[in-house]
Amino acid sequence: MKLIPITQEHHLLITRLYALYLHDLSEFGDGYHLDEQGQWQPDYLPYWLDADQPVHPLLLQDKGRYVGFAFVGEKPFPYMNRERDYRLSEFFIARPYRREGLGRAAAFAVFDRFPGVWEVVELPGNKPAVGFWQKTIDAYTSGNYRETMEEDGLTQVFKSVA
Predict the structure, then answer these.
(1) Long-range interactions of 121-127: CB distance < 8 A, separation 24+
(2) Spans of all domains in the chain
């Protein structure tokens, strides 16, 4: 699994992938909707692409094909617990590439790239994501993680070491 930092040349690609991601999320929360132009809202993509923010937007590539993305917030990222170093805020594997182990491989690669204390949060109603992250983080940490219900959702906290 190759992690590729998103640059201006990837703008059209990430815009299209992000729309697919928001479409998938709309099934699990009432906060996602189409605006008058047919674009998904809320759209946080400009924040993730702002070089002045403490974020790491990454494309996920396997065997030369783009399969998804991961958006990582790094301390002092304002949308995470201050006692943690990183937050995996947005993570997406396109439907044709799911159930092939690519999500797990991508998650492991992201965690290895940024050693420290992590938080991963899921919408409580997103049962597929909850199951995926519990299994993935359990495998990554050999069961050495903490899970709590926090203000913004079900949260797993663990330490990665590269």
Answers:
(1) 121/87, 121/89, 121/150, 121/152, 121/153, 121/154, 121/155, 121/156, 122/153, 122/154, 123/25, 123/28, 123/29, 123/153, 124/149, 124/153, 124/154, 125/28, 125/29, 126/25, 126/27, 126/28, 126/29
(2) 2-160
Pairing of strands 65-74, 33-34: unpaired
What is the number of other CB atoms lying within 10 angstroms of the CB of residue 132?
A: 18
Contact 156, 147 (CB under 8 A): yes
In CATH, what is the architecture of 2-160?
3-Layer(aba) Sandwich (3.40)
**Residue 55: strand pairing partners:** 73
Tens-digit pLDDT profile for residues 134-152: 999 999 999 999 999 998 8
Q: Give dist(CA 90, CA 120) in Å, integer.
A: 9
The overall longest dimension of the chain from CA atoms, in Å, is: 47
The reported pLDDT for the residue numbered 153 is: 87
- Per residue in 81-94, pLDDT (tens digit) is 999 999 999 999 99
pLDDT for the residue 32 = 80
